[in-house]
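Lab channel / #folding
Pinned by the channel admin:
"Please post every new chain as: sequence first, then the structure tokens as a reply. Keep commentary short and put observations after the output so the thread stays searchable."

First post following the new format, from NK:
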Amino acid sequence: MKALNLATLILVIVGGLNWGLVGAFDFDLVAGLFGVDSALSNLVYILVGVSALWQIMPLIKAFQIGEAPAEAHRPTPSRM
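Reply from TO:
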């Protein structure tokens, strides 16, 4: 299960970076690598979407056990 979580997290990061490139430079890296509307690029988009859905489960679990609000537990920097 750990390998699946890592793989889906990597795909979500790839998807986020791709959307960042689309927004900033109007460049779709996936389409650039695999072709616009090709079967392979469509597969990558589908895998990124399914990975995002999969990553919702650990997020919900983290909220349930109180891990998600990590900012509240951050130590304050010491003054020099």
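NK: The CA atoms of residues 7 and 51 lie 8 Å apart.
TO: also worth noting, DSSP finds three helices and no strands in the chain.
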